[in-house]
Amino acid sequence: MATSLSFVLSHPLPKTHPAGPHPSLPSRRSLSVSCSSNGSGSEPAATHYAKHRRPADENIREEAARLAPSSHGFSARYVPFGAGADTPEHYSLDEVVYRSRSGSLLDVQHDLGALKKFPGEHWRSLFDSRVGRTTWPFGSGVWSKKEFVLPEIDPDHIVSLFEGNSNLFWAERLGIDHLGGMNDLWVKQCGISHTGSFKDLGMTVLVSQVNRLRKQLNRPIVGVGCASTGDTSAALSAYCAAARIPAFVFLPADRISLAQLVQPIANGATVLSLDTDFDGCMRLIREVTAELPIYLANSLNSLRLEGQKTAAIEILQQFDWEVPDWVIIPGGNLGNIYAFFKGFDMCRELGLVDRVPRLVCAQAANANPLYLYYKSGWKDFKPVTAMETFASAIQIGDPVSIDRAVHAIRSTDGIVEEATEEELMNATAQADHTGMFACPHTGVALAALFKLREKGVIGTHDRTVVVSTAHGLKFTQSKVDYHSGLIEGMECRYKNPPVNVKADFGSVMGVLKKKLGKL
Ligand SMILES: Cc1ncc(COP(=O)(O)O)c(C=O)c1O
Ligand SMILES: N[C@@H](CCOP(=O)(O)O)C(=O)O
């Protein structure tokens, strides 16, 4: 068991753990410790607090560098997706590699043996102790789980905007009014985030690793690039701007929202608006990154998913490490559904929880290759040409992570559901009427929930989490269209258009009396 001083400083242990004391937080960094843990479980006298503010000329990154070790025995590497711990093919995370020798996807494989030296209770206490702090880099919901994410990176190379720690709220009225009295319905607000989507969780990890490659290992990486339906590019641009790394984004012209388009522009990225769809942009960025030393930031790069999986760990944490029954996630390129699976499964494997929830992947009917594959009994996967959908960020017909998604669904006795344009827009509007401001992708997940409730698959008292993937404010045009009732072929049943009224007392009173009469 580790006994070095530096290890103890970066790994507070439960008091009862034989490996050593559990310095209460957050001031463990200012402990004037002069001895290492002796493994006896007794509290060394030296663990008295001297709570000093860091010197005025030192920032939190420098403070972390002074106090934290850069390595502590945990490690991770790339392996072909689905490979076991004994695989002969593996790569250092410092290599620039996106595919295995046979062309399959890669996965980040952690040394679970090393992590298992500590019981689940240790990890639960450690992660809980870091929530809501400003200690670098643990103020981030992603980096507060650093040992499960990128254990070997030096905190000094981390590029973080203190992402994560997003709200998981009880959707009381939505459950009662619209879902037959569901009383344990929750929404994980991954879109209430720095750039307005869950992509921040993955991008902090990917850009941090690039920062390490450039700064520590002097690799000639000239920038980072992605194809995007709007959210990946926004996150990439923000994190690259924070780290002074050039960003290159390939966007399908006229297929993303104005708010999403303006994000990379404002953050100083090189924005290429291309006359093709997302799948076309994806093909181009893969060709370009094979040719130029531009690092690929799409979720084909499995580093991203290491950050995204922390949203699943956060959900468990927010439920005091109780496992929900269902988690519903909208799917496009299909990295995120696997990231959630990985987060949940890692916690099961390491004893933080004893099972995983059932996962539902929700797709827009206009871009539903996973749904069709699922319906075929997993017999026949065919990419589709994705049609226009209000859930524009998931308008993807040839998802890169198809194999990862199938694994996630099958391993959790999961389900794939789809939502038509009318279903997703109605679900969004209904949720909004209960106080949310859901994006259309969240609408897809909500519509899937409505359907699974109607079919009786999800029960009234099942603890269910809907993952909201982006902020509704990025997609206001869809709401304007809906509430104007101007969408061709759509009833817009829950529309609530503004009333144009003459600015005189009588007219205003007339409108209000009519309205009050209906309440
Ligand atoms: C807002 C939003 N929701 C859901 C998704 C789907 O995530 P994934 O591509 O990982 O399936 C994306 C991106 O594709 C997105 O931007
Ligand atoms: N919705 C995504 C599509 C690309 O997905 P990625 O996870 O592979 O980057 C986006 O916002 O661009």
TrEMBL record:
CDD domains in alphabetical order: Thr-synth_1
Principal cellular location given in the protein's record: plastid
BP term (GO), one: threonine biosynthetic process
Function (record text): Catalyzes the gamma-elimination of phosphate from L-phosphohomoserine and the beta-addition of water to produce L-threonine.
N6-(pyridoxal phosphate)lysine: modified positions: 199
Name of the protein in its database record: threonine synthase
Family: Belongs to the threonine synthase family.
